[in-house]
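Lab notebook, bench 4. The sequencing result for the construct came back, and we need a structural model before the next group meeting so we can plan mutations. Quick request posted to the team channel:

Model the 3D structure of this chain.
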Amino acid sequence: MYKLKTAGGFLLLAFLAFGCATTSYVNERVKTLEEADRASAEKISALEAQGVSHDQRLQEAMKVAMEAKDEATRAAAMRAAFSDYMVIMEKELRFRFDSFQLSDISKNVLEEIGPRMKEDKSLILEIEGYTDPMGTEKYNLTLGQNRAHSVELFLAGNYQIPIFRMYSLSYGEANLKMPAETGEGNAANRRVMVRVLGPPATETPTAQ
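Done. Here's the predicted structure in token form:
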């Protein structure tokens, strides 16, 4: 297991990868996202200091997320709310060219995750969508987000996992897993990363 990175510096890198078509747009949005992220983190930190429950933290995160104007801001709010959570499961789903339809193999993987998410309501899901570099940057960002959304819709529809317990980002053609010169490389790049996040494990006191 490893700890979920805090939203601050990580968010900047994530958004640059998530980005949009122009550098000027990125520069404008980065400042807005950092301010939103900082405000979210301050709210959550105050709640943590008061020793509030997971449900209260989730409620606050949901409120901030609902006010978000885009997926990146929503993801920032969720990351700030649960920055101390650990990755307890990570799965990769593959997609066919120019498609966001889940394969039977991907559905089987999600059928492992769904019951666990339904049983343990303290778990949160982080979803990242990726594409190969074919097509325009703008198109691939949308395709990556659609792939991530297909995961959310599957879990919400089949296991009644509330959407506010999941958050997603599209990185489009950024962060290629393999060189895109071959068909095998492009197939590996058409993916979604799914991470199940949970509260840090409580350490059992050592007997004296």
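The two ends are 28 Å apart (CA to CA).
Will bring this to the meeting.
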